[in-house]
Amino acid sequence: MEQDCPRLPDAELEVMQALWAVPDYPAHTAAIARNLHRDWKAPTLLKLLSRLEERGFVRSGKEGRANVYTPLISRQDYLSTESRSFFRRLHGGSLSSLVAALYPDTRLTREDVEKLEEILHKGGE
What's the mean pLDDT in 82-93? Predict the structure, then answer.
């Protein structure tokens, strides 16, 4: 995924998460709706899917009279981009700042420290 990929508003992200949860693509609107945690009416879901298509996140098509959708960006790619953006925006790219924020009052276990060291060693390669 490109670095300048737009961040999704919460409602559109929820629709993408519902689409990513469908096992086979293209996914029918009904299959996407079943994975939502809200009871949106069909026009609302279709509008959000239309916005996602305009942004380049999904491709739409027809199967008979039904609308179907295929994600153009994988869940993992989006999460990686969002995580890097969060890390840069809120912690200035500082791993120690992130870890301190995640564990302000908790002592890290030896296993936690070993995993962090492993990550740090990989970053230096």
Answer: 81
Residue with tokens 């993408």: 16
94 Cβ contact list (under 8 Å, min separation 6)? none
* Separation CA 15–CA 35 (nearest Å): 9
- The whole-number pLDDT of residue 2 equals 43
| Residue 86 and residue 95 in contact, taking contact as beta carbons nearer than 8 Å | no
Residue entry with tokens 């009871």: 39
The single residue listed with the structure tokens 């890097």 is 84
Mean pLDDT of the 34-60 span: 96
Nearest to 32 by CA among 55, 58, 9: 58
Which H or E run includes 68? strand 66-71
Of 125, 122, 20, 36, residue with least CA distance to 75: 20
Lowest mean pLDDT among 29-33, 69-73, 77-81: 77-81
What's the rounded Cα separation, in Å, for the pair 89 and 109? 27
